[in-house]
Design a protein that fits this description.
THO complex subunit 7 homolog, mainly alpha, nucleus, coiled coil, rod-shaped, 90% helix
Length: 203
């Protein structure tokens, strides 16, 4: 025997109890009316009127069941939409976390490059104090190119890190906006549900 899920319980509850709790009473009234009608004679003047009344009560019960089914399906669809939206937000957060981790690694590399540059600067000063030789000059030129390349790499890494920070801030802002939209939708749904309950009570 298959296990009964929460959705099955809610669905059956809607079908049996309806929205306002008046459906049990309506069904009982229908049953009582039917019993009275079944005891009437065919030529009784009240027979046709009671028959029409039962038809109207049956139609109202069918309408209530159909309305409950539509409400259930709509709520289920909304739940699926919220689940997809939640998953999308989680994916974006994971992506942002991965980008931050990557940016931290790049920053660590930039610090290492900076440290190496300082060491190269110290080494260049020592070399400059040595007698002027052709090999020393060539080494100084090579070190100068390396220092220039390192400086360019450091600048690029710093710009990339700043870009990652801006992208993450935009993502966080989008997440907050999505959460606000969800809260507004949920509040609107509650208000509409209350209005439907009030309409059902008045009818």
């Amino acid at each position: 025997m298959a296990a009964v899920t929460d959705d099955d319980i809610i669905r059956r509850r809607l079908l049996i109890d309806g929205e306002g709790g008046n459906d049990d009473k309506r069904l009982n009234n229908l049953l009582k009316t039917f019993i009275r009608w079944s005891h009437l004679k065919d030529d009784d003047e009240n027979s046709q009127a009671m028959y029409q009344r039962m038809q109207a009560m049956i139609a109202q019960c069918e309408y209530t069941v159909e309305k409950a089914m539509n409400t259930y399906e709509m709520n289920k669809q909304e739940q699926d939409n919220y689940e997809k939206l939640r998953q999308d937000i989680e994916n974006k957060i994971e992506d942002a976390t991965a980008k931050i981790t990557e940016a931290k690694a790049e920053l660590q590399l930039a610090k290492c490059i900076r440290k190496n540059r300082q060491e190269y600067d110290n080494l260049a000063k020592i070399i400059q104090q040595q007698p002027d030789r052709q090999e020393t000059t060539r080494q100084l030129q090579t070190l100068g190119k390396e220092l220039s390349s390192l400086a360019s790499t450091k600048q690029q890494l710093e710009e990339k890190l700043e870009l990652r920070k801006k992208q993450f801030m935009v993502l966080i802002t989008s997440i907050h906006e999505l959460q606000r939209i969800l809260e507004v939708d949920e509040q609107k749904e509650k208000e509409e549900s209350k209005e439907e309950d009030m309409d059902s009570t008045t009818t």
